[in-house]
């Protein structure tokens, strides 16, 4: 049995994205390395030789494309897989990433499915699905803070939430969520993306009530920590 863990380097100057990315790669057989700028990322690649590197395009000290170019120009490191991450996703920035020699480009806001598929493709591993915990919390959702509907959560994880409601939205629609965790005074407000819909007449998952699952897209680090604390410090049951 091969006990050597595969290594993934996440390089981004924004702590929130690093926290979100780490939640997407929760596995016992993956070591996650973290860099906060391009120069640090290059040093970690030289020291640890990770199998996969996610590089943000814009970082302090050294941008991701320059770091990628130095990796690919080094004969000893050229085999390291580099996935560039860019917020804009416009043609010019994609060309800039490709010119640096990266293996792939993905965009922010980070799409969980796209991110995990990239990891699976290059690491040949199956990433573990985050544990969802049964929760029933009143929640407001809608296209903006001024236009919101009400519902209840059915389950909650570090990456998203299931909203029980008959007022479902469209897949890939971006929405604002507002909800308060039990025992915490400060409400959580974040942006999310509708990942899938469970219609009442044609349910995708008949065991679940009508509603939709969402992926957190833009959430503060404090709110992310609050969710983690709530999930780990309470005796919650895993959702079916």
Poorly predicted ranges: none
Q: Numbering strands along the chain, what is their spatial order in the largest sheet?
A: 7-8-9-12-11-10
Question: Helical segment tally?
Answer: 6
Counting helices, strands and paired strands, the structural category is alpha/beta
Number of strands: 12
Kindly provide the name of the CATH class of the largest domain.
Alpha Beta
Task: Classify the beta-strand content into a percent band.
Answer: 25-35%
Shape: elongated
Radius of gyration: 19 Å
Mean pLDDT: 86
Q: Give the H and E element order.
A: EHEHEHEHEHEEEEEEEH
Multimerization status: single chain
N→C terminal distance: 32 Å
* CATH topology group of the largest domain: Rossmann fold
Q: List the domain count as a whole number.
A: 2
Helix content: 25-40%
Give descriptors for this structure.
five-stranded parallel beta sheet, 6 helices, 12 strands, Thrombin, subunit H, Rossmann fold, 2 domains, single chain, 240 residues, alpha/beta
Describe the overall structure.
The chain is built from 6 helices and 12 strands. The protein is an alpha/beta fold and about 240 residues long. The chain folds into 2 domains: about 120 residues, 3-Layer(aba) Sandwich (Rossmann fold), CATH 3.40.50.2300; about 100 residues, predicted glycosyltransferase like domains (Thrombin, subunit H).
At a glance:
The chain has 240 residues and is of the alpha/beta class. It has helices spanning 15-24, 38-48, 64-73, 91-99, 112-123, 221-233, and strands spanning 6-11, 30-35, 52-56, 81-86, 104-107, 133-134, 138-144, 147-156, 160-164, 174-179, 188-198, 211-218. It folds into two domains: 6-123, Response regulator (Rossmann fold), CATH 3.40.50; 133-233, Thrombin, subunit H, CATH 2.40.10.
